[in-house]
Each structure stands twice: as C-alpha cells, then as structure tokens.
Fold this sequence. Notes:
The protein has helices at 33-42, 48-61, 71-88; strands at residues 21-26, 63-69, 93-98. Strands 2-1-3 form a 3-stranded antiparallel β-sheet. By secondary structure, it is of the alpha+beta class. The protein starts with 20 loop residues before the first strand and ends with a strand.
Amino acid sequence: xxxxxxxxxxxxxxxxxxxxxxxxxxxxxxxxxxxxxxxxxxxxxxxxxxxxxxxxxxxxxxxxxxxxxxxxxxxxxxxxxxxxxxxxxxxxxxxxxxx
Length: 99
C-alpha cells in the first residue's frame, strides 16, 4: 500500500494503431503527366524524382499505390487531388482501399 488508506493501481494502456488504407492512383489517357507529378509533390509530399517514378509506373502499369494513411487522411488527400483535377478538367481517378 502507498499512502495510508489508498491503494496503488497499475493501469496498462494499449495504443492501437489506426487501420491503414492504400491510396491508389489510376492511369487515364487525358490527365497530363505534369499534373500527376504536381499532385504527388504537393498533396502526397513526394520529391520530384519519386513523383516522376510513380507517374511513369502508373502510366505503364495502369495504377499504383501512392501512399498508406489512416482513412480520414487518405480520403482527404484523394478529395483534394480530385478537386484540383476537376478544376483543370482532367478525368483523373484515385481510389482508397483497406490495406
């Protein structure tokens, strides 16, 4: 016993990591490569070299995972990207899937 009349309790706190979700970028024949790189740099915080590699992978293979995030962050990044694409008139597509 600790202080007279008080019982000391030990509590274990388990911190559960949030589920991760993949943000997937899809290729199309209309969205410019420059726009895709811009999104990867501005929204997904990739450096220019990595952004160019991802863009070329999507172009050649049809799609690629561009990041893994908790659901709310994944959805926000996709919404920002699609909003910018819509303003530019691009049919740019991104999806979110559970990892």
